[in-house]
Every structure is written in C-alpha cells, then in structure tokens.
Amino acid sequence: MTRALLHRLLRLLLLSTTAFAAACSVTPPPSAELPFRLPEAFASPSQPEMAQSDAWWQRFQDAQLNQFVELALTRNTGLAQALARHKISEAQTRLSRADQLPQVGIGAGSTRQRQNLQGMPGTGANNTLSTTHSATLDISWELDLWGRLSALSAAAQADYLASGEQLRGMRQSVAAQVTRLYFEIVHARAQVTLSEHIVRSLGEMARQINNRVTVGITSPADGMLANANLDSARAGLEQRREALERSLRQLEVLMGNYPSGQLPTAADLPALPSSPATGIPSELLTRRPDVRAAELGLLSAGYRRGAAQRSFLPSLSLSGSAGYAGSQLAQLFSASNLIWSIAGHIVQPVFQGGRLTAQLDIAEGQHQELLHAYAETAVNALAEVESALVVDALLLNRENALDRSASAAEEAVRVSYNRYLQGIDPFLNVLESQQRALDGRSAHITARHARLDNRIALHLALGGGFEQGPQP
C-alpha cells in the first residue's frame, strides 16, 4: 500500500507534463537575411569548387612551420582560455535543461519538543515531552506551460554552439598568427642578410675611397660621404636586427615558450603555392566560424526574446511530498506512519513596476543589435575574400616590377662607381645609385612577403581548416 501511494504521487506529477506537451514546444526564430542578394560566384577571379578541409599552412611545404603551428594549437594560452569558455558554455546548457525537470530531494529529521499544558482542561500534568522522527521524499516542479523554460534552454544551446564556432575561429586565428609571424621572421632575416651584404660592400667602397683621399686622388669630402653612407647602412642593419628579435619573441610567446629569441626558420621566403579553391559566397557563410557564431548568437537572442514574451503568461508550479513520521524510530516506516501531500500553485503577473516590459524591451533590443551584427560580420567576410583575391594579382605585378627595378639599380651602382673612378661622374651619383639599389631590393623582398601574408589572409577568410564544428 505504501509503495502504491508513492507511485501514484510520481505518476500524477509525470502525467501533468503530458497535458501541456504541445504548449512547451519552441519554434526556432526566423534566420537572418542579408540586405542584398548573394551572387553565384565571387566577383574576383576564383575557383568555384569548395575549399578542402585541410591544414592549409602545410601548402607552404615548410616542416618547421608545420611543427610550430601544431605546437601553438596545443600550448597557446589564448586558445586554452577559449576552450575553457566553451566548457563553461556546455555546463550552462546542462544547467538550463535542469530547470525543466522536477527537483527531487530526500530529507530526514528528528524533533524533541517540550509543551506546557498547565491550565488546560483534562490534563493532569503541567508539561509533556514528545519526540517526532520523519523521512520524506520532496518533489517540486515548475511546469513549462508556454515554453518559457524551453526557450531559455534553446538559447543556451545556441550559445554553446556559438562558443564552439568561436573556439574553431580561435584555432584558425592562432594558426594564421603563427604562420604570419614565421614568415615575418624569415622576411626579417632576409632583410638582415641584405643589410649585412650592403654594409660589407659599402665598407669596401669606403676603404678604397679613403685610400684615394690619402694619396690625394680624391677630395676629402668624398671620403666623408662614403663614411657617412656606411654608418647609415650600419644603423639600418641594427634596425632590421631589432625587428627580427621582436618577431622571434612574439612567436615564442604565441607557442607558449619562454621568449629566448632562439627559433630556427627557413633562410628564404618560399615560393607562393597555387591559389586555393574558394567555393561560392553562399558556401562561405555556412563555414566561416565568425559568421556561424554571429548567426547562432542571433538565434539565441531570438529564443530569449520569446522567453521574455512568455513571462507575461501565468506560471504553474507543482509540489509534492511523501514519507513517514512517527514517535518511534524503530517503527517509523510502518504503514500507519505514512504521510503525503500534493499541491499546485498558479501565478499570473499583474504588477511588477514595469520589470517584465523592460526585460522584453532589452531582449528585443539585443535581438536587433545581433541582427545587424550578423549582417556586418557576413559582409566583412565576403569583403575579405574579395579583397584577398583581387590583391593577389596586384601584389604579383608589384613584386615583378620591384625585382626589375632593384636589378637595374644594382647595375647602376656598378656603372656609376666605375665612372666615378674614371673621373667622369661625381661621387653623389654613386651614393644615389647605392641608396636606390638598397631600397629597391629591400622593397622587392617586402613585396614577396606581402604576397605570402595576403595568401594567409585568403586562407583565413575562406574559413581555413577545422571544418567540423560542435554538434548539437
């Protein structure tokens, strides 16, 4: 009999949810739409095939770079923080689901009471002592009549998925930062090597001119200009070494290492690999992690707006308790000591000082904000791809032009110096050609580095690797 009563209590609470199952369902908010129609293909020259889901940095065929990226993906502190936030979001999702379930607790207690009976008719004693022992099972449950709790749970689930996309985007960002810093180091070392070569050449030239000054063949002013040009080149060399040291330590910190400035890299910038497949604009918006996170954030805001709207409707709570209470602990669980109760409580909000209206206005404002934020994120994603595609060809033309310019300037140095030794041209012509040669070759190296940096930006803009996001 005791067990039958407990079953009846639990069955009554469970059947209560069936009556309101249809009302508890939550319809997803409508998805965001862009203020313009997406084209069928990118405006810049591209390949319409979908980009492959691979480790795009491996396309540069540098084993040292691959090692650095993999190390950063496991040890980067910023990435570890993003992973922790993702775990917190997952726990918040489970927490929101718990609000939809009954809260069950088991309690036990014992009470010793002294009661004064003096003056009460029919009693022959002044006071009495009593002892009561109890053991109960308590259940409380807020029924989700209108789907408010379901909407909040769906919002938390969307936030969790958005945090997964943010984690995926963070991984891509770290990989891109490592790759960029790696090639920045290679670029800086190439600039240092160039400067060292220039310093050696100018040092030899200054030595020869100073010898000519000593024997009276050349004006002392030429020797001073040669020495000044040499010292200027030495200062430029130190400036390039400074840039190299800073980049080295930035990369070490990014990989979670101590910034000692000791990292091996390739000696020269690599040849640019073939352009990756870009897919089409609509596909881009489905795989870019920042766009996906913005879309899921908008979905979450829609659910929260729905929950705020449902806060104006009545809420129904059920509570129940079943157990035993008696004065004898040894006979506590006998059938005669069984107690139980069940209660329902319905509340219709009437006046809360404008709280519910303010909450709805906040939710509506947040939804509108995220709606425009999604459109902004999507447009920026499309613009990044278009820009990287069109700039790639422009940078190639720039690199080729600078290569020709630097080669011509280097030949001009040789010609002008020989004409100076023959007394045909002044020494200022030599200095000018030297400066043009240095600037031209340095700019050519920088242009090659810019093409690599733009290719990294293209991979990042296309969504890169890590195509698999978190699952619902």
Overview of the molecule:
It is a single chain. The chain has two domains: 1-27 and 104-118 and 125-143 and 315-347, Outer membrane efflux proteins (OEP), CATH 2.20.200; 31-100 and 144-313 and 356-461, Outer membrane efflux proteins (OEP) (Up-down Bundle), CATH 1.20.1600. The chain has ten helices and four strands, in the order ααααββααααββαα. The chain has helices spanning 2-19, 21-24, 63-75, 77-98, 148-214, 220-254, 281-287, 289-310, 355-421, 427-461; strands spanning 103-116, 127-143, 315-326, 338-347. It has a four-stranded antiparallel sheet with strand order 1-2-3-4, with helices on one face. α5 (148-214) packs antiparallel against α8 (289-310), α5 (148-214) packs antiparallel against α10 (427-461) and α8 runs antiparallel to α9. The chain is elongated and about 135 Å long.
Please sum up the structure shown.
This protein is of the alpha+beta class and 472 residues long. Helix content is 61%, strand content 11%. The chain has 2 domains: 1-27 and 104-118 and 125-143 and 315-347, Outer membrane efflux proteins (OEP) (Single Sheet); 31-100 and 144-313 and 356-461, Up-down Bundle (Outer membrane efflux proteins (OEP)), CATH 1.20.1600.10.
CATH fourth-tier homologous superfamily of the largest domain:
Outer membrane efflux proteins (OEP)
Please state roughly what percent of the residues sit in beta strands, choosing from under 5%, 5-15%, 15-25%, 25-35%, 35-45% or over 45%: 5-15%
Structural class: alpha+beta
Low-confidence blocks of residues: 8-24, 466-472
Q: Helix count, per DSSP?
A: 10
CATH class of the largest domain: Mainly Alpha
The helical percent reads 55-70%
Q: Label the overall shape.
A: elongated
CATH architectural designation of the largest domain: Up-down Bundle
How do the helices and strands follow one another from N- to C-terminus?
HHHHEEHHHHEEHH
Major beta sheet summary: 4 strands, antiparallel
CATH topology of the largest domain: Outer membrane efflux proteins (OEP)
